[in-house]
Amino acid sequence: MSYAYVNKQGAAGGGAEAAETPILCETCLGPNPYVRMSKQAFGKECKICDRPFTVFRWNPGAGMRTKKTEICTTCAKVKNVCQTCVLDLQFGLPVQVRDTALGISKSGPSTDINKQYYVNQLEANMDANGMIESSVGPSSRAGQEILKQLAKQRTDPRGGDAYRRNRAHLCSFYAKGECNRGDACPFRHELPIKNDTTSKQNIKDRFHGTNDPVARKILNASTAAAGLGAPDDKEITTLFLSALPSDVDEATVRTFFVQNVPSLRSDEIRSVTMVPTSNCAFVNFRSRNAAESAAERCALRMDLDGQEIRVAWGRSRPGKKSIKA
Ligand SMILES: [Zn+2]
Ligand SMILES: [Zn+2]
Ligand SMILES: [Zn+2]
């Protein structure tokens, strides 16, 4: 095992050996300008691609938990995430939230069979500096603005989670009323919170931006705030668009949803009914899931061709519910 010093400004530390420096977010690094890290070559298998990688361990500050890198630098670069918390490096938000706001489609290996091929391809595309073109390309300013707003809410000391991530782990003896170490105990003397979403997170889901309970919480909150919370009537799979620019046609609407809603396939839009006289359109989705994903994306940004539009859920059809097919 060896040690490395990481300068948070990114200047010193690794020097010529850029690949020897971990990719980490500010929060995981902690408040100190220089962080002393232990370094273990091929210390563990990457939790995403299963290949052994260099594991770094460090303490982000007094009373904090020891942190270590969980995924390899290649995987971190692909998604532009921190090697430890797997949150977006720029915004500190879950991949699923970022990709919804920016309209980034899912990419990357989904099965073990093509995983090795995928990693090999990535490394073949790496340039001399070890940089790879990640799936996070340049995207519209609107999406970036939304993410800045969401990130601000997350780092708010009253409700943010940023500082909580480095806290010492809970003392299991304290929870049972059996800890007698008092103030000298390195663990946190608090009772565990029931239904804590962070404890149910799976690192692969978080990385790929699917089924991430923390992302779901953030997206649900923004969807509710935008008045686009999913209606109770599960048969409603239609979104109503209004204040459309006059030159918008059916093809524009379809393209907008397919390009901007992560994971939405074109065949998941059942129909688009334009009402040109009132600059409105009804977009009918094949499944409730597809409609909810579309509403989530619209809640974050309601713009079409750069112009702001209005979006609402369709209404229940009176009487229809009682008819059983
Ligand atoms: Zn990896
Ligand atoms: Zn981090
Ligand atoms: Zn204790």
What is the CATH architecture assignment of one domain?
Answer: 2-Layer Sandwich
Major sheet, described briefly?
4 strands, antiparallel
- Structural class based on helices, strands and sheet pairing: alpha+beta
Number of strands: 10
* Full CATH superfamily name of one domain: RRM (RNA recognition motif) domain
Task: Give the SSE string.
Answer: EHEEEHHHHHHHEHEEHEEE
Rough outline: elongated
Distance between the termini: 68 Å
Could you please say which CATH topology of one domain applies here?
A: Alpha-Beta Plaits
Quick one: CATH class of one domain? Answer: Alpha Beta
Small-molecule components bound: zinc ion
- The low-pLDDT segments are 10-19
Order of strands across the widest beta sheet? 1-2-3-4
What's the rounded overall pLDDT mean? 81
Helicity range: 25-40%
Q: Please count the helical segments.
A: 10
| Strand fraction | 15-25%
Cα Rg? 23 Å
What does this structure look like?
With 325 residues, this protein is α+β, with helices and mostly antiparallel strands. Among the domains are: 90 residues, no CATH class; 96 residues, RRM (RNA recognition motif) domain (Alpha-Beta Plaits). The chain is built from 10 helices and 10 strands. Strand 8 and strand 9 form a beta hairpin. Helix 3 runs antiparallel to helix 5 and helix 8 crosses helix 10. The termini are far apart. Bound molecules: zinc ion (ZN) (3 copies).
